[in-house]
Design a protein that fits this description.
With about 240 residues, the protein is α/β, with parallel strands linked by helices. The protein contains 6 helices and 9 strands.
Length: about 240
Amino acid sequence: MNALILQHYANEGPGTIGSFLSSRGVGIKIIRLCDGVGIPSNALEYDAIISMGGPMNVYEEDRYPFLRHETSLLKKAIGLKIPILGVCLGAQMIAKAAGARVVKSPKEEVGWLNVEFTQLGRSDRLLIGLPNQLEVFQWHGDMFQIPVGGGLLATSRSCPHQALKFGSAYGLQFHVEVTREMLGEWFAQDPRKDLILDRMDKIERQFLSCAKTIFGNFLKLVSVYHRTHTASHGGCCC
């Protein structure tokens, strides 16, 4: 199996999700859109597409032309039922590709905050095996709306739309891929750094365990797609 990872910003890489997929034998291709690398012509041949975070907004296409190309790719991938996972900006890109608006969040969220799964979320295949509430890392000012035909999987008081599902695509407004090193880099010059890292130290084991559960569930969906896609093209799916 092979996954395509779209990176929008230099220090917002795949983090633990990249490590997890590599450890399970999944081939990874990282496209650094932030460096001007274009989306490859064979992007729709991957078994999964993962869209990472970034400080830009989905509607800043004039400033970041790659956002327009990514929207087109995600629309096509959803139509082909390719498994997609979006984190933060990536989740907003999924919503946009599915025809939903991205608006200002009722409240900007930065730091460790709780999200709660909806009834739909608690029964969804991506979130099986998780507690009803998670403490996750947040850093965003925008919020996606739920596309027509999609579902709301998680919510919070500060930002009611925290996770969505639309067809084969999943969007998480929060970060589950972060490592201590990533947070240290993100907040290197920020007075909140010590507080954020101290909390990471306290909850790291549980946080990573939940992240791995999400990644494992996503990989199961990718495996089903891979077997079905391979079989439909006459290959061996054993």
